[in-house]
Inverse folding.
């Protein structure tokens, strides 16, 4: 079985970081409570160099923050778009971007809810158990407007579901009980500065 899928297609080899990152600049990651994270994003309607540059920046920002996915509103841009570089539970790596993502409504048969730990770059330092289906299918387009269908299982399904939530104006805290949400925000308060220090060190390392 191929070990890497790029834009949903198997490839024989791929670098440690998506090539887009080499062209990108690091952007500030928005944090829970900022308005852009809590309202549905606008559809992308213009395709061109500005969109390509945003995708480049998002890849580099994601790698600096050691994330598996990043939505445009997490860098303050109100557009339906996310990037990802994420393994599934079989260790297969999935890399790409998707624009105007729409999740397919899958039949419950054959799907399980996995109640695993989940974090978010916009809730720095917090990890909470969030139940998610173990399979996801997302339809959208790429930076050139070509149709895409991205499928994921296990941890990669969680990534697709998490990032699609973002473009719809939801953070994973919205899926938690009031008590668990308070716990997550306490974790964020306790660990936030440590996370930021790691990001700064990682940015310095990647800029060498």
């Amino acid at each position: 079985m191929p070990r890497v899928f790029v834009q949903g297609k198997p490839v024989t080899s791929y670098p440690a970081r998506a090539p887009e990152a080499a062209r990108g600049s690091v952007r500030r990651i928005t944090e829970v409570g900022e308005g852009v994270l809590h309202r549905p994003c606008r559809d992308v309607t213009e395709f061109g160099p500005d969109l390509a540059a945003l995708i480049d920046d998002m890849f580099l920002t994601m790698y600096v923050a050691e994330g598996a996915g990043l939505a445009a509103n997490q860098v303050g841009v109100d557009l339906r778009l996310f990037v990802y570089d994420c393994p599934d539970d079989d260790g297969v790596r999935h890399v790409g971007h998707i624009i105007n993502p729409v999740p397919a409504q899958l039949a419950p048969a054959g799907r399980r809810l996995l109640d695993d730990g989940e974090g978010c770059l916009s809730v720095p330092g917090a990890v909470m158990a969030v139940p998610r289906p173990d399979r996801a299918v997302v339809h959208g387009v790429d930076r050139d407007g070509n149709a895409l269908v991205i499928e994921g299982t296990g941890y990669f399904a969680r990534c697709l579901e998490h990032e699609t939530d973002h473009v719809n104006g939801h953070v994973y805290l919205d899926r938690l009980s009031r008590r668990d949400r308070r716990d997550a925000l306490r974790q964020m308060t306790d660990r936030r500065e440590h996370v930021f220090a790691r990001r700064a060190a990682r940015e310095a390392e990647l800029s060498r």
About this structure: The domain at 4-206 is CATH 3.90.45.10 (Peptide Deformylase). Residues 178-206 form the longest helix (29 residues). DSSP finds four helices and nine strands in the chain. The chain has one domain: 4-206.
